[in-house]
Amino acid sequence: MLLAFFVALFCGKMKVKKGKVKIMKNIINRRSIRQYAPESIPFEVAREVIEIASKAPSWKNQQSWHFVLVDDPVIKESLMESVPLGNPGRPALTEAPYVIVVLAEPDQSGELDGKPYYLVDGGIVFSTLMLAATDRNLGTCFIGWFDEATVKKACNVPSSYKVIGLTPLGIPLYLPEEKPRKSFEELTTINAFGKETE
Ligand SMILES: Cc1cc2nc3c(=O)[nH]c(=O)nc-3n(C[C@H](O)[C@H](O)[C@H](O)COP(=O)(O)O)c2cc1C
Known about the structure:
By secondary structure, the protein is of the alpha+beta class. Helices cover 36% and strands 13% of the residues. Strands 1-2-5 form a three-stranded antiparallel sheet, with helices on both faces. Strands 3-4 form a two-stranded antiparallel ribbon. It is globular. The N and C termini lie far apart (41 Å). Residues 31-32, 34, 87-89, 141-145, 179 line the site of flavin mononucleotide.
């Protein structure tokens, strides 16, 4: 396996890419989209986004996640009702052609030092889903402020699942400006806290 990798690399079949390759562009271009064009999108594209998301890593490859792909206007309305009025992402849940509810099953994932890994699995798969959608020029927005019981009732979710979040999926009405980010220096410690770098 390893030999095949190096043979492919040195024969030029695989090239280590430099600069902003597509995944980098998708990470940089992704925005939380809260306003959507009225046009629908093909079911196949929504399906592809979920299939690509499922390539995400997970605890022991348990893939503890599950997706509910919603296009039923009545269910979308109920999902919107699960979100408080003050949440800026609320209207998008009926505006966008699809809503994806991301679930994870704690029993399928692990727990270490009091850290339940279904939340990690769910976060990674959600992020991968948003990047897959960006690649198709589609908008998403992680909605994490919602009433879980209302979401579960709307989609008849079995009690073993937790709701990680919801996202609208559709064509962005416009691309918002990038939100400011903390700098490398603010975010990064070299080697250990409390030691000055040379
Ligand atoms: C865990 C989590 C929960 C979030 N919950 C909400 C939410 O309930 N409503 C909303 O409008 N945006 C929500 N967001 C989106 C953030 O506000 C957004 O990612 C952040 O402001 C940065 O903007 P950007 O995504 O355009 O880069 C959430 C994001 C994350 C990661």
